[in-house]
Amino acid sequence: MTRRPSVPDRVPLDVLRRRADGLWAALPAEVSELGTLFAESGHELALVGGPVRDAFLGRSSADLDFATSASPDETERILKRWTSATWDMGRAFGTIGGRRGGVVAEITTYRADEYDGATRKPTVSFGDSLEGDLARRDFTVNAMAVSLPSLEFVDPFGGLEDLAGGLLRTPIEPAVSFGDDPLRMMRGARFASQLGFDIEPATFAAMHEMAGRIEIVSAERVRDELTKLLLGADVRAGLTALVDSGIAEVILPELPALKLEVDEHHHHKDVYEHTLTVVDQAIDLETDEDGPVPGPDLVLRLAALLHDVGKPPTKRNEPGGAVRFHHHEIVGAKMTTRRLKALRFDKETTKAVNLLVSLHLRFHGYADARWSDSAVRRYVTDAGDQLERLHRLTRADVTTRNRRKADRLSFAYDDLEQRIAELRDQEEIDSIRPDLDGTQIMELLGIKPGRDVGEAYKHLLELRMEHGPLGSDRAEAELRRWWAARSS
């Protein structure tokens, strides 16, 4: 097990200012050469956006973003003097890319786009100043730049001060910024997760007011931002921002719906708070890169987020004030699949998360009564290649404040994992198959491929589950006995 990565430490403003000279002097020599080439051609060039922010946070990247006064055609001509490895897939948006050694540069002409309000696709127009280009960035911490080759730091909107304060604020009026591109609201929640920053009150108020605008954003872009949020260091902060702003009502309504429910197992908190805690605990159970579930793990985090979404539609009030959610794991698995498909997640991820949600309650029967070897085999077989994630999801799902109950569940799961390990030593529990394959079944029974072979295979598989390895002699005898009974 490994602890989750921490969000960046807050650095005082005066320390950040003193750090700047050393940061820019440490830029790769290739960057300085590129700046000189643009200057000699009579054009401005500046390092902008995330690379500047991350440099202040002590992070480095070989992928660098630049803004320039040069047109795309002029940029391409200059860039070809720097490297022969160039590309222009982003030409329509003013971006030309190039690689030299380990440095990847994407250079975009100053932008001054206009939006029609109906979509988030801008009418691309080029600007004439660096400050104007920075004004159209999503947040002030991403609206800082370093002019090249002079290494002058440019910060017209107070991004460095916001960086020191851990604050997300738009460079221009937030209503205008989010009206131009509603996806910026999701980026705010994503940066809250990745950087651990707070969203400035006026900016958050605009997110709340304009949450419905997120509907014009494609499902794929929403999925990408949600994925980045879930892979961040402070996922709870990002999810809370989505729910409290109302954005989750549009993109993931199953999550705020949990606020209305009381969990039968955790009376001290509603299902929403329980879910956030499960996400936290699942993240803490991820492993390092050499372990079975290297973090950050998107499938595990999605399963933790969605494991109880079936509770609202299955809620039943029973005599005596009890609340039950019968079969919510089955209903929740179906809801999970629908939501992930709507967000355009790939089939493999969707299938894995569905399986984990559907199985997350299976263990509770073990805590009440120790399973037979047969039941343990079925648990492993049903989980398949998601077993290690299921271990972690099941453990994370214990959020009770009752220490005795928590310990009992933990000890029970320790016992289950030990049972699985023991069976692994004795037999091939991870890939259970009948003792006879289809070809052997046909030869022994003298039948051709068809339904009877499948039925025989299922019968032998059931025996294998129930009794463990039978051996070929016993398997043959059991098969002949079954066939004779079936024939008669």
TrEMBL record:
GO terms for biological process: RNA repair; tRNA processing. This is CCA tRNA nucleotidyltransferase. Its EC number is 2.7.7.72. Pfam families: HD, PolyA_pol, PolyA_pol_RNAbd. Keywords: ATP-binding, Coiled coil, Magnesium, Metal-binding, Nucleotide-binding, Nucleotidyltransferase, RNA repair, RNA-binding, Transferase, tRNA processing. One of its GO terms (molecular function) is metal ion binding. It comes from the Bacteria. Residues 271-393 form the HD domain. It comes from Demequina capsici.
